[in-house]
Amino acid sequence: MYTVESLVAQIQGLSSSAGDLSLLLTHLKQADEFLHNESTQLFPFLEQLDPTLHSLGYLYILEASTSGPVTNEQARRLVLLISRFLTSCVADQIRLAPEKFIAVCKSFKDQVLMLEAPVRGVVPLLEAVKKLRSSEHLTTLHPDFLQICLLAKCYKTGFSILEDDIFEVDQPRDFYLYCYYGGMICIGQKRFQKALELLHNVVTAPMSSINAIAVEAFKKYVLVSLIYNGQYYSSLAWMCILYIELANTYSIGKISELETYIQTNREKFDSDNNLGLVKQVVSSMYKRNIQRLTQTYLTLSLQDIANTVQLSSPKEAEMHVLQMIQDGEIYATINQRDGMVRFLEDPEQYKTCEMIEHIDSSIQRIMTLSKKLTAMDELISCDPLYLAKVGRERQRFDFDDFDSVPQKFNI
Amino acid sequence: MEPDDEIYANGEPDSSNNRNRPIISGEQLDIEAYAGLYTGRTKITRLLFIADQCGQNNNTAMQMEALRMAYEEIKKGENTQLFRDVVHKIDGRLGDKYGMDSAWCEAVDRRAVQKKEKLENELNAYRTNLIKESIRMGYNDFGDYHYTHGSLADAFKSYVRTRDYCTTSKHVIHMCMSAILVSIETGQFTHVTSYISKAEQTVDALDPNTVSKLHCAAGLAHLDSKKYKLAARKFLEVAPELGNSYNEVIAPQDVATYGGLCALASFDRMELKNKVIDSINFRNFLELVPEVRELIHDFYSSHYASCLEYLGNLKANLMLDIHLHDHVQTLYDQIRNKALIQYTHPFVSVDLHVMANAFKTTVAGLEKELEALITDNQIQARIDSHNKILYARHADQRNATFQRVLQTGNEFDRDVRAMLLRANLIKLEYKASRKL
């Protein structure tokens, strides 16, 4: 039988080369049950191991010791321990036992939440995600990390993860959550285009039955597309009548009507936790109306802007225009002396080196994407599973086709 | 002459050049003369329509005049139902002379019943004898009978029934013309269109007058379905020989008005010149309604103020027209928009003060109209609201192309990535379902 001491000795001895590590892994797998039984007495042994040198062994022992229920007091110690481990462990070693690593991270997340200090989880989990993921692959840790970021309001840190392309998914649920949380982080960062893309992924994801994540994502999707595009049209007409109606009211283009609609349904939006976004929808309508004016006018007085956009005073109109100029949404100059706004054309001439570079990089990006598409297509057309499915359907089809002919002869 | 003056003169007709002012424009419609243009049932319905419209506008004198004439006209016919309606509408306001004439009604009704019996007997006799031509005549008489007594639906049925007994193409055309007449009266223009095409499919060549009548009917049908361009083309094809021969439906003056206004609203400059102004046929019609002729010429020669003035004067009377009244506002708006577009088209910059003057409107009002047109992308220009100048704007093709390319690239990028993801998800789901 094992003793903890002998295991620790094995770990210390077999952590240097790749061959040793695989040997260690088999040992540890065999000892897993034993470790779980001993889970309460493992803490002191962790101090004999170095999280960097002995990552794999450390991981197994850590996982065993966190598998049971944890008290508040223990959690305080564990959080410290695990965050040190997550930041200093070696990626190659922990990837040998990903399920253990994920289990440790999950319990770490739970403990952080139990201590109500999500900020403490952000950096260690970011490290964990970076160590576990391979390119273009969605790990189970992604949604957890994004959730922690949201709770800790560390949108910027969360956003850094979202910029990587994701193509491969293990669990659809992870993917939905990843996109939903990711969308919320992008909304927090006002990156509406990216948010729209992520939410769109959830809303259009193939699913046999609608789930709650998709419904919530859909609500946010409607709101964000109103803010970003100023319109919402799509064949996706789901049960969220409240939001579809909002979009319809928006398309009429009357501020007053939109506001009354929102006032009457205020509680419902509030209970969905979407009231903040709804308010942004209202202010986006002012912007949209001002933007429309730039198409028609070269100069227009602030008073006229206030009148057409239904703002209460020229002062307010000036604030709006100023903000929009600052955000690069319109090109204009304000003449404060006689209260006139002069709208200019987009100064971008598409002649600069930066622009050429930008276009070039876009082309490159799309070319790689296109290659990926072809590769995927080839992969699928060679996939035995796919061929079996298609073949079966073809057969049934043909059978039907020929079926009627002999029957006639039988009669 | 200063260039500014020239523009000004462009919009303002010379007051010294005394155009012959139209006879009826601006004044109240002369109902007597108007009613004189028509015969048959349409005369009565038109008069009643005028009475209704005037009733809504509280123009009692005109309403009474129209009702009085309708009363007299009905008395000549045999439609007692219509008679009772009119008497009810007059409501004793025209004195005893125009009250209820029960004796007349009863006499007419009695005669009608007798006539109906006679017709039924005749028809039955023909049917037993199986003489095709006689059966056709019998049904035709029945149709006429229903028509004069005001039951249009029955009349339509009877006329259509003659179809099975038509032997020559002349009969077919007669049947079609009757059906078209009734359908126009009832406002069922889908029937009108279908019977026009039936009439046009007959083997023998149609005589020119029938062709003109069919064009008129087709024009009315297109007008009703708001296809103004097609309506204009049909009215323009009507030959002047039509004269007063289709009075039970349309007067030649109407052809000019309907055709002219529809053409103005829907044709471009070339088509207007070729098909309306240079058309010898249509010129004859236009001579009948000089104000329409004048306003078309004004529009073409860019005297918009005068053109719009003519239109404004005509409006009250056009609203009293049974076929046109629904479309007057739309047509007017379209004509006005076209005028605005045409006015701005040749210039790089336009002074809004001058333009407002030319269109007899205020600068602020003009700005609103232009704004709507620019938003609609009908005028490529931008308004300098500070200096009240309209600047033409020429789209930069190169920039627009760059913009579109980048946008399309982004969309492609996004869509492909979403597609790959979805494909992976489906794969996953399928694999999971296999394992179960």
Automatic annotation (TrEMBL), chain A:
Q: Supply the Gene3D superfamilies for this chain.
A: 1.25.40.570
Which SUPFAM superfamilies does the UniProt record give? Winged helix' DNA-binding domain (SSF46785)
Highest taxon above the source species: Eukaryota
One Pfam family matching this protein: PCI
- Family annotation (InterPro entries): COP9_N, CSN3, PCI_dom, WH_DNA-bd_sf
Name a GO CC annotation attached to this entry.
cytoplasm
In what residue span(s) does the PCI domain sit?
191-348
- Tell me which Gene Ontology terms the entry assigns under biological process: ubiquitin-dependent protein catabolic process
Record's subcellular location: Cytoplasm; Nucleus
**Keywords, ordered alphabetically:** Cytoplasm, Nucleus, Proteasome, Signalosome
The record's family statement is: Belongs to the CSN3 family.
State what protein this is by name.
COP9 signalosome complex subunit 3
UniProtKB/TrEMBL annotation, chain B:
The record's SMART domains line, in alphabetical order, gives:
PINT (SM00088)
List, alphabetically, the Pfam families matched. CSN1_C (PF21151), PCI (PF01399), RPN7 (PF10602)
Spell out the family assignment given in the record's similarity comment. Belongs to the CSN1 family.
Per the record, the domain of life is: Eukaryota
Gene3D superfamilies named among the record's database cross-references: 1.25.40.570
Assigned GO CC terms: COP9 signalosome; cytoplasm
Q: Which InterPro entries match?
A: CSN1_C, PCI_dom, Rpn7/CSN1, Rpn7_N, WH_DNA-bd_sf
Keywords associated with the record: Coiled coil, Cytoplasm, Nucleus, Signalosome
What is this protein called in UniProt?
PCI domain-containing protein
Question: Which residue ranges are recorded for the region named Disordered?
Answer: 1-22
What subcellular compartments does it reside in? Cytoplasm; Nucleus
Where is each PCI domain found?
Answer: 227-397
Q: Which residues form a coiled coil?
A: 109-136
